[in-house]
Amino acid sequence: MKLISEDQFSRHYKGKQIGLFTLKNKNGIEVKLTNFGARIVSLKTSDKYGTFQDIVLGYNTIDEYLNDKFFMGCIIGRYANRISNGKFTINGIEFLLSQNDRENTIHGGFQGFDKKIWEIEQVGNSIKMTYCSEDGEEGFPGKLNVSVTFELTDTNELRLDYKALTTKETAVNLTHHTYFNLQGEGSTTILGHTLQINSDFITEVNSSLIPTGELLPVANTPFDFRVSKRIGLDIEKNHPQLKYGNGYDHNWVLNKSNDRLSLAAILSESSSGRDIEIYTTKPGLQFFSGNFGDEKIQGKNGFYKERSGLALEPQFFPNSPNLPDFPSAILIPEDHYHHKTIYKFYSDNK
Predict the structure, then answer these.
(1) Residue 7 pLDDT > 80
(2) What is the pTM of this model?
(3) Which residues are designated catalytic?
(4) Which of the listed CATH numbers 2.70.98.10, 3.40.50.720, 3.40.1390.20, 3.40.50.2000 matches domain 2-347?
(5) Number of neighbouring beta carbons within 10 Å of residue 188
(6) CB-based contacts of 51: which residues, under 8 Å, 6+ apart?
(7) Any residues with CB less than 8 A from the CB of 240 and at least 6 apart, and which?
(8) Prior bond of 78 cis (ω within 30°)
């Protein structure tokens, strides 16, 4: 690991140092991270011709990350995704959260973990980032100590290991919010990518993208990715759930009955020959197809437009604290929050 002293990322901010850090394996895969939001800034992998390209969306300077509103490459917390009406109840006590998505809470509130400066240390061939979320931060109860370890292996796996401890019962749902484009960031849209998700159901949402508590079978719907399918094939179909999200912005219920590490999804792009397998211990996977609307986002190489990248976010289900039939996302002081995600990279020439 090394600190890159590029002026655009080295910054003393709010009394702490922000830097850029690099992991590289023997096969040439390179990951750069910043401790502002525990973000992946770039991820270079080989295509089938042996050419390395950056396959994640992002910015060129730390100032752009400081003003980011699209959660580029960051760790999301204290609770990823949405919580209805910005509140939940534990043991009869109602907790009021920051309402940063109209009346709802999304991705931890106005100053979620993506806006925090994390402490950083090298642990072997990995980077460990830690953050202490104080009791009451954004309305969440309990002091929460969090760590995320990023490890890049010589078997072309990027491993994320999440841990947390709390002083009070609280809702915790950590995930990673990188936008991928396997043709290379700044290139064409992700509509030609193919995706397979190991899931028979999605969690139905209302017009505010809040789960209703019902599970919808994916069979015979645009949400059926049980067999690898081109993302653009059904994204414009006349389906009410697609209308709500302006495309895919839904949680898939993974086919698993426990928290063992298992294959959740496979993302592929034929012209580059790149593939990513995603493994997780979490029960759900949010697929967001980069529905930016008319937003023009200045990225690393030009402007990002609608569906320039996609996010695949292992998670507990959205709004779980208010829906007791969903897998529980409540952490108690006696327990350890410990989850893993693995991104395994392939190219046709390997």
Answers:
(1) no
(2) 0.96
(3) 177, 313
(4) 2.70.98.10
(5) 13
(6) none
(7) none
(8) yes
